[in-house]
């Protein structure tokens, strides 16, 4: 079986390390804040000017003024802080964020990412993604392995306008965990019940399979 969006976020949460500052992009990445492993202290940063972002609020406890970059209502943990976007982007551009988790429409085997525009469709702009991909040293993409037509989103080269070039380090999809290195997708883990052959068939880019590939373990 393939993973749900919540399970993708749960697997990515295993990548968190103690005392990291982490930026969560729009979509699946926002769910990561709900799955912080026990014993890990991380600070989630939102580029609209929030540090110390917590899980989504319970129904009826939302504060319309407390939102993330995707305009979703969020909570703020004890010790969190709110500041202007200039300060927030200084933190990003100064490389003070240890991990960035982004969604994507396409990822290429050399680490290119396209996640902001489909030609012909109206968009408000690239937002903070351009700064994040240009400044972050560790980018993990959370995405579905294929689009609604069943076509692979892990490609040899991206067909959509790029957000960043050669910047993605790892991809977690509903089928697999893959590391990008040496110009290829290296298969690290497969979703429970998903075969290596399933992943090969769903991956248009070069896929490297080295030895037995373990199933993901979701805590």
Which secondary structure elements does this structure contain, and how are they paired or packed?
Elements lengths: L4 H9 L7 E4 L18 E4 L3 E4 L22 E7 L2 H9 L5 E5 L2 E3 L4 E2 L14 H7 L3 E4 L11 E2 L14 E3 L3 E6 L2 E7 L5 H7 L4 E2 L11
Parallel strand pairs: 1-2, 1-5, 5-8, 6-9, 8-10, 12-13
Antiparallel strand pairs: 2-3, 3-4, 6-7, 10-11, 11-12
Rg (CA only):
17 Å
Order of helices and strands: HEEEEHEEEHEEEEEHE
Helix count from the secondary structure assignment: 4
**Strand tally:** 13
What is the approximate shape?
globular
* Largest sheet strand order: 4-3-2-1-5-8-10-11-12-13
Mean pLDDT: 93
Q: Strand percentage, roughly?
A: 15-25%
How many angstroms does the end-to-end distance come to?
A: 17 Å
Structural class: alpha/beta
Taking the sheet with the most strands, its summary is: 10 strands, mixed
Helix content: 10-25%
- Report the uncertain regions: none
Describe this structure in words.
This protein has 219 residues and is α/β, with parallel strands linked by helices. Helices cover 15% and strands 24% of the residues. The chain has four helices and 13 strands. It has a ten-stranded mixed beta sheet with strand order 4-3-2-1-5-8-10-11-12-13. Strands 7-6-9 form a three-stranded mixed beta sheet, with no helix packed on it. A hairpin with a 3-residue loop joins strand 10 (170-172) and strand 11. The longest helix is centred in the first third of the chain and has 9 residues, at 5-13. The radius of gyration is 17 Å and the shape is globular. The model has no long low-confidence stretch (mean pLDDT 93).
């Amino acid at each position: 079986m393939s993973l749900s969006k919540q399970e993708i976020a749960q697997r990515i949460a295993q990548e968190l390390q103690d005392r990291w500052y982490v930026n969560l992009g729009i979509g699946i990445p926002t769910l990561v804040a709900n799955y912080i492993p026990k014993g890990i202290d991380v600070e989630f940063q939102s580029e609209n000017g929030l540090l110390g972002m917590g899980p989504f609020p319970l129904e009826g406890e939302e504060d319309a003024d407390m939102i993330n970059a995707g305009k979703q209502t969020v909570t703020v943990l004890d010790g969190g802080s709110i500041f202007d976007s200039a300060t927030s982007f200084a933190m990003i551009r100064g490389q003070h964020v240890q991990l960035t988790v982004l969604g994507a429409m396409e990822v290429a085997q050399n680490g290119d990412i396209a996640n902001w525009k489909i030609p012909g469709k109206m968009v408000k702009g690239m937002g903070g993604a351009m700064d994040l991909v240009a400044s972050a040293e560790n980018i993990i993409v959370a995405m579905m392995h294929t689009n609604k037509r069943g076509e692979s989103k892990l490609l040899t080269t991206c067909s959509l306008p790029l957000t960043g070039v050669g910047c993605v380090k790892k991809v977690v999809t509903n089928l697999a965990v893959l590391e990008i290195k040496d110009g290829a997708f290296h298969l690290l883990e497969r979703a429970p019940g998903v075969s290596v052959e399933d992943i090969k068939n769903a991956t248009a880019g070069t896929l490297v399979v080295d030895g037995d590939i373990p199933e993901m373990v979701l805590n």
